[in-house]
């Protein structure tokens, strides 16, 4: 009798767990018909300094860039092209690195309107313009990692600061 109860409890527990597991969340990738760019930047500078410089640069480029949220670990902003036609959401996430006491920055720009996936590097330039103008491209330990898969139009980008 005890064996039957134990086996029943195990089977119920096994199948009960399968039922209680929620379905996996969708991948956090941009919708396929929106142009986007994702980049990863490394710095040998603390995140507080990096995030402050980026937030200040967003404010300096007003009204083309508008700051929506600024915390020590995340910045959200919006970009509107000078002609007023295109708009993009921009996000920066900051993670301290233990080895160099530096910062890992995940940056992304996503076009809001329906557009060609090949945006000639517009989304990349939105991110790079802020980085370059704030002087962070010459910061200690600066390294950029992205490619055409993560940043559509990256190879065609001709950013004008």
From TrEMBL:
Keyword annotations: Signal
Top-rank lineage group of the source organism: Eukaryota
PROSITE patterns reported for this sequence: PROKAR_LIPOPROTEIN (PS51257)
Signal peptide: 1-20
PANTHER family found in the cross-reference section: SI:CH73-250A16.5-RELATED, WU:FC46H12 PRECURSOR
Protein name in the entry: Lipoprotein
């Amino acid at each position: 009798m005890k064996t039957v109860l134990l086996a029943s409890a195990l089977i119920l527990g096994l199948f009960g767990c399968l039922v209680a597991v929620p379905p996996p969340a969708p991948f956090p990738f941009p919708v396929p018909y929106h142009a986007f760019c994702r980049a990863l930047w490394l710095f040998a500078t603390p995140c507080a300094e990096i995030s402050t410089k980026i937030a200040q640069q967003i404010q300096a480029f007003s009204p083309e860039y508008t700051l929506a949220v600024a915390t020590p670990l995340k910045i959200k902003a919006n970009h509107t092209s000078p002609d007023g036609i295109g708009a993009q959401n921009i996000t920066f996430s900051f993670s301290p690195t233990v080895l160099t006491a530096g910062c890992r920055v995940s940056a992304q720009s996503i076009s809001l309107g329906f557009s060609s996936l090949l945006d000639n590097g517009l989304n990349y330039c939105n991110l790079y313009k802020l980085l370059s103008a704030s002087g962070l491209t010459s910061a200690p330990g600066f390294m950029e990692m992205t490619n055409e898969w993560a940043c559509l139009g990256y190879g065609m980008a001709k950013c004008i600061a």
